[in-house]
Amino acid sequence: MRTIDIFDTTLRDGEQSAGVNLNTVEKIEVAKQLERLGVDVIEAGFPAASKGDFDAVKRIGETIKNSSVTGLARASIRDIDAVWESLKTTAEPRLHVFIATSPIHMTHKLKMTPDQVIEKAVETVKYAKKFFPVVQWSAEDAGRSDLNFLVKIMEKVIDAGASVINLPDTVGYMTPQKYGEMFRFVRENVPNIDGVKLSAHCHDDLGMATANSLAAVENGADQIEGTINGIGERAGNAALEEVAVALRIREDFYSASTRLKLDEIKKTSALVSKLTGMRVPANKAVVGNNAFAHESGIHQDGMLKEKTTYEIITPELIGVNSTRLVLGKHSGRHAFKNKALELGFDLTEEKLKEAFDTFKDLADKKKEIVDDDLFSILTNKQTEIGEDVGFKLERMQVQYGMDNIPTATIELRDENGDLKQLASTGSGSVEAIYNTIESMLPSPSRLLDYKINSVGGGRDALAEVYVRLEYDGDNTSGRGTAQDVLEASARAYLNAVNRMLQQKAAMKEKVAVKAGV
Ligand code: KIV
Ligand code: ZN
């Protein structure tokens, strides 16, 4: 049985999904959960891309102890230096450096000849090897590259010091057979390949990312790259939970396993979905809400007689708990703390107390508190931004009637402690709220996306709203949770604005520190 390394790029390729915008605190929470899941490598970001990315990679490197942390670099000394600066104090600094190798990319994007690409790849890998014990080199768009050219460049970068070679299907063009053949070909033809790990990185443009990743395993890949829930550029990346569960369920066929703790999958999926605002489709393999629902009479009859008639994956395997009712309004702080730890939340005493108060408030209004409610309360607490940043919703009143014009009256407190009050109308209640808030903000703001979800279930379920906005010329996103959909909507909008203000304040602080102010 071979062991396949799992390389998670949720925080890099996944974060490149349109509309996804995680702040550093949220990225750290995702990284901690990926560590609990047991991934071998966490690609924490692209440090040269922005100050925010640099800081997030640095802080993740300082926080994570049981997974290796890596950062992405183009074949450029400046990019490699940025990864080194962000990871140099970690136990095993690891670099992921890439350059495109397909004729299309070399000609049109890089405007370089194949020989120039080889030269650049070798020069940058050699440079990186002076600092990093592990250098992973990727041949971007390997799927559309000439196989003999791949063999040639791989031999050279291995000589230069790369010990992991990744062959991405950057545009999701490959079929399982062709992608598998590419791995077999390089294994058989690169003369110095022994001891080098081969990695697969698939995109899902044709819906084949998981199948292609598994074909790579069949043909000698030692590492699979992907993201939780398959999020990522365009149609996304290979969904790691699908690859890992397929390897477990079809161990008989693949004779390969991973080190993942599969019963952490559902929790990881829920966290990524909540923080990115990217909902998991109900019919999604492994983690969709319907993945274990048997609707038709024939199936239900079969399941009652013998579960294996229609169920190849048990919910327990991925950590779906069948006992869902957890705490009630009489539950004490001790039970709450234990449940939080069981759900993977290790909050400070202060945050735990605040989360407990929120739980008690909710328990007064809601009959049953289930895991999903607690998960939502605890994640919000763990990732909330400081109280002192931005605008706080003090009071809100909304008037709606079929024959009236919806009107929202809102009272906000700004960061200086000043109260503002205003009323505006809209064609619906949410629009009235957003018109009012926008008129009270100091900079122009525009709603780009609005999504609403119920947490848990039942008519008294919590509402969770996710919004994307343009505020003061930049894009931002936010979440709001409340029992009432209108309150959740207002909170989400203010959360998005406050996140942007916090980011800007942090930037200003850094500039001031640098300037010695
Ligand atoms: O898809 C791709 O080619 C990538 C590389 C940067 C590895 O994400
Ligand atoms: Zn990619």
Task: Please describe what this structure looks like.
- With 517 residues, this protein is of the alpha/beta class.
- A hairpin with a 2-residue loop joins strand 17 and strand 18.
- The mean pLDDT is 93.
- The structure holds 3-methyl-2-oxobutanoic acid and zinc ion.
- 3-methyl-2-oxobutanoic acid (KIV) binds next to strand 6 and strand 7.
- Keywords: Amino-acid biosynthesis, Branched-chain amino acid biosynthesis, Cytoplasm, Leucine biosynthesis, Manganese, Metal-binding, Transferase.
List the helices and strands and how they pair.
Elements: E1 2-3, E2 5-8, H1 24-37, E3 41-45, H2 51-63, E4 68-74, H3 77-87, E5 94-100, H4 103-110, H5 114-129, E6 134-140, H6 147-160, E7 164-169, H7 176-189, E8 197-202, H8 209-218, E9 223-226, H9 240-249, H10 251-254, E10 256-257, H11 265-276, H12 297-305, E11 325-327, H13 333-342, H14 349-365, E12 369-370, H15 371-383, E13 392-399, E14 407-413, E15 419-425, H16 429-440, E16 445-455, E17 462-471, E18 474-482, H17 485-514
Parallel strand pairs: 1-10, 2-3, 2-9, 3-4, 4-5, 5-6, 6-7, 7-8, 8-9
Antiparallel strand pairs: 11-12, 13-14, 14-15, 16-17, 17-18
Helix pairs in contact: 1-2, 1-11, 2-3, 5-6, 7-8, 8-9, 14-15, 16-17
Bound molecules: 3-methyl-2-oxobutanoic acid and zinc ion.
Pathway: Amino-acid biosynthesis; L-leucine biosynthesis; L-leucine from 3-methyl-2-oxobutanoate: step 1/4
EC number: 2.3.3.13
Region (Regulatory domain): 392-517
